[in-house]
Amino acid sequence: MTNYFIYEDVPTALQGDKLFNFAIGDALIREVVRKPDQTLLHFWPIENMIILGMVDTKLPYLSEAVNTLQESNYEVVVRPAGGLAVVADAGILNFSIILAESNEEKMTIDEGYAIMVDVIRQAFAPFGKQIEAYEIVDSYCPGKFDLSIDGKKFAGIAQRRFKNGIGIMIYLSVEGNQQKRGEIIRDFYQVGLKGEETRWHFPDVDPDCMANLSDLLGVSLTVPQVRDIILATYEKEKPVKTGYYNEEILADYTAANQKMIKRNEQIFSKE
Hints:
There is one protein chain. By secondary structure, the protein is an alpha/beta fold. The chain has a single domain, classed as BirA Bifunctional Protein, domain 2 (2-Layer Sandwich). The chain has helices spanning 20-34, 62-71, 109-124, 178-193, 213-217, 223-235, 247-269, and strands at residues 3-7, 38-43, 49-52, 75-78, 86-88, 92-100, 132-133, 147-149, 152-162, 165-173, 240-242. Helix 2 runs antiparallel to helix 4 and helix 3 packs across helix 6 (223-235). The termini are far apart. 38% of the residues are buried. It holds the Pfam family LplA-B_cat. Catalyzes the amidotransfer (transamidation) of the octanoyl moiety from octanoyl-GcvH to the lipoyl domain of the E2 subunit of lipoate-dependent enzymes.
């Protein structure tokens, strides 16, 4: 049976690194490849950041679109995982399940997504609302494993894969102004496209199709409370231990961080 370890603190020396949680996510995938008897749980709240996917960098007017985000006091980062633009702020919880796979038992993309869907459904089952998984096409960062209640999306899922290691990531809109988040991403695409047709598909975002988990459940919830609810789901099975950033993890973090810095510099230097 796997052992569970939680990672959520940022080392003091690295607290100023806006790319920390992305780079450490890659490092933790490397760690489970070395130690396949572990499942790692990574909670990573971020404030005032717009996280772009690689497809977003194909917008014909990317520079202008990014400028509008920065003028609204958002940091802008292109992440290594798939998907499109999402908002990260104090009311959003980002959470990753990081697990190993063997050459003999490969996990499909959909099976990876299903693991996260099952965890979230288990965690919030006591609230009595049905959580559905299907694409909300006019949401931001739409995908076929969008999570919704009563037709309103509150979470999206992405994956990051290396050989024999998988990170399944979810953002959960817990509280705050979800309407504004939707408007920000809608406007980002409107400025970035200016009505032009491209070979890539970008969502025509309707802010009304998304909502906060708090509102959908009819309960006042905070990001720390949602983190505790998810963690309790695992602790029903066995205790979750605190994970530590050993030398191997930090070395992998440094390598991943340098790649992300280079990638982001290359993308934005073209603008």
